Amino acid sequence: LCYNGATWDRLRAPIVFKTISAVLITGETTIWTPAAGKKFRLMGYCLAQGILTGAVTLKDNTAGTTILIIPQHTAGVAQTSPDLGNGILSAAANNVLTATGVATETITGYVYGTEE
């Protein structure tokens, strides 16, 4: 168990890994669709930008709440997530995880976590 500041939560381990291969994210693009009736729990990422045009924004569902903004970094060099502990649970079942960039931005790598 782990303490979340108010209650004790069951400790989770990532079991879902979603690969991303040179996906264009100029418009908001889905990068993780959980199984029907499930929520994704984002526990981390390892992403490389193909073109340096700005930050990458990860959101909870299309036009949803911003989860993380990943700053621009060296093209082709993977950037790993900070420790997200027990992860960030999506707000609702069937929400997707999306990524958005600017201009002709592409990303390659993976996101991981659980579906519950």
Features:
48% strand; mainly beta; four-stranded antiparallel beta sheet; five-stranded antiparallel beta sheet; 116 residues
Describe the protein.
- It is globular and about 40 Å long.
- A hairpin with a 4-residue loop joins β6 and β7 (65-70).
- It has strands at residues 2-3, 8-9, 16-24, 29-32, 40-49, 56-60, 65-70, 79-80, 88-89, 97-100, 106-115.
- The strands form three sheets. Strands 3, 5, 8, 9 and 11 form a five-stranded antiparallel sheet that branches.
- The model has no long low-confidence stretch (mean pLDDT 94).
- The protein is an all-beta fold.
- The chain starts with a strand and ends with a strand.
Structural class: mainly beta
Helix content: under 10%
User: Would you identify the regions where 5 or more consecutive residues have pLDDT less than 50?
Assistant: none
The whole-number mean of residue pLDDT values reads 94
Number of helical regions: 0
Shape: globular
Beta-strand content bin = over 45%
What Rg, in angstroms, do the CA atoms define?
14 Å
Quick one: how many beta strands?
11
**What string gives the helices and strands in order?**
EEEEEEEEEEE
CA distance, first residue to last residue? 17 Å
Major sheet description: 5 strands, antiparallel
